Amino acid sequence: MYNAGKLVRSLLLAASVLAASVVPSMAQAATADSVFPLTSPLLQNTEPITNYAASNSTISYLDPARAEDLPSINLIENLFLGLTDVDPVTIQIRPELATEWSSNEAGDVWTFKLRSDVPWVRYDPATKQTTEIRKVVAGDIVYGVKRSCDPRLGAYYTLVTAAIIKGCDVVSRIESDKIKPEDFDQVGVSAPDDTTLVIETQGALGYFLQTTPMWMIRAVPHEAIEEFGEDWTNAGNIISNGPFVLEQWDKEVSWTFVKNPLYPTINEDAKGNLERLITIYVQESSTLYNLYLGNNIDAAAVPRAEVANAKADPVLSKELSQTIGLGTYYFGFAYDKPPFDKPEVRRAFSAALDRNSYVNEVRQGLGIPIAHFMPPGVFGAVPINVAWIGTEENSGFDPEYAKAQLAAGGYPNCEGLPQVTILSTQSSTSVASAEFMQNAIVQNLGCDVSLITLEQQEFSILLKSTSADTPTEQRPSMWFISWFADYADGQNWMHDVLSCNVGNDFKRTCTPVDDEIDAAAKELDLAKREKMYNDIEESFFGKEGEFPILPIYVSMSLTLYKPWYKGPFETDATFGGPHWEYYTIDQAAQLAARGGANLGLPTPTPLPTETPDPNATPSS
């Protein structure tokens, strides 16, 4: 087995030769900024059953308590088991670490019975050996939940956890330099024994069970965190319990995972055969697409410029899969700096965007225009084409209303408008979205283009730049980002993103709508609760709405999958990350296209040790 990271850096020339020999257009894509790893034909070597992938997003965190972006969550799903899991086919909650659960009559105390056969393991990249450290116990989840409540982490999902688990809200508000170990005793989570977990919630929450697969309340290994601190998730340091282990992670180059040979059978229907996954980072979607055409990777999103060609191609058209996801793309507004400190200006910018044209021109039809936040399929969502502004045929778009609102906000005809910075990632779609927004402001609001500055940053840097902790003068005015459902309930959208109580990056202050959000979370009458979320959406996105964000479109992806690569692609990762143990590679077909043969993974060496204290205090 070779080290993909080292090969990426040291053997660019050979990889470029491979790219040019497989498909002519790749010769242009292989530049100093676009480096490809060697593949089996060049190595003249055998290899495990491998899924080859490329991504134009880097990985921010592999720490369950810190992760907040989809690329990180996708990997964490395969490194750390959840309390429960979302079935990749049925999308229903099912057992994972927990085998059964029940609540008290009031619905605010939940008891979970846990498996006793799941090992914590450490993988050594140098020796290729997987070693059992000990078994996972309920105290590891106690530790993980308490750690998720720790304000010293500065994690986005700390306040999401605080909205769910009793006492977490109290701890998360303590100043970082004043927190004491005994403060965590207030968090409503305990382990009566190694296979029993008790969670106290913030009252009877009708959506609680839907949150139990989430990453920030997973078991984590205290010994690795205490030994390595922030470096505990580095390859060779990390201790994990999922179906795959980390072999290599070079943040802006590549990352490699291999199958955990000590992983017990959790789900009998998980019959995938993957032994290794190698992902390289490429900035441009066109480069990723060319890698697919050259049989260098097994799946790829279709770039917007290639959609028509892919649909017309007799081979590629058979490899296409179209999926609508529970995700909304939007521009965020910074409340803490003019001009977006005024709701009239936020309304104006939103109404100036023609979402239909955006989807057709930027997304090549891949997306559903939306002028509110929650997509269809989320409990409490209003109809997709509701027209509080604009028309049902083009919801949200009304240039005359936009100009009137801009004037009401103190900037008639854009006079006196301060500089507006729109931040995007470096991906072609993100950049094109920012450019489309810039043109909409110029054309539909009459602003001079010099007032609208476009900037691009790598994704993890964008998250830091837009964080509420970043000084106002360093924050952008707007930024392009997305939100995908963690669970199918309005709480995950109205509260976990827009509420003033989650430390949102918009820095919006509390209004009466936040009281409505809190009330909806605890309403057990489903009909009343659905109506409450409908009303909350209108409070945010109606004609007199606050508009904390500018929604644009609901996620729709067009992805190519090689005929040798199979899995529940259309349903998996609707919530949380993908389940790699369900995916299969017909390696004979794959290697017939690439060249090469197969070699199995090394045999592990299990070395069990003692069980930890279930009441251990978390360390950040």
Structure report:
The protein is α+β, with helices and mostly antiparallel strands and 620 residues long. 28% of the residues lie in helices and 21% in strands. The strands form eight sheets. Strands 15, 16, 17, 20, 21, 22 and 23 form a seven-stranded mixed β-sheet that branches. A four-stranded mixed β-sheet has the order 2-14-13-12. Strands 5-6-10-9 form a four-stranded antiparallel β-sheet, covered by helices on one side. A hairpin with a 4-residue loop joins β7 and β8. The radius of gyration is 25 Å and the shape is globular.
Layout of strands and helices, then pairs:
Elements: H1 4-10, H2 12-22, H3 26-29, H4 40-43, E1 46-47, E2 50-55, H5 70-79, E3 84-86, E4 93-95, E5 98-103, E6 109-114, E7 119-124, E8 129-135, H6 138-148, H7 158-164, H8 168-172, E9 189-193, E10 196-200, H9 208-211, H10 222-228, E11 239-240, E12 244-250, E13 254-259, E14 276-281, H11 285-293, E15 299-301, H12 307-312, E16 320-333, H13 343-351, H14 355-361, E17 368-369, E18 390-391, E19 394-395, H15 399-408, E20 420-424, H16 428-445, E21 452-456, H17 459-465, E22 478-484, H18 491-495, H19 512-522, H20 526-541, E23 549-561, E24 565-566, E25 584-585, H21 587-594, E26 597-598
Parallel strand pairs: 1-26, 2-14, 20-21, 20-22
Antiparallel strand pairs: 3-4, 5-6, 6-10, 7-8, 7-11, 9-10, 12-13, 13-14, 15-23, 16-22, 16-23, 17-23, 18-19, 24-25
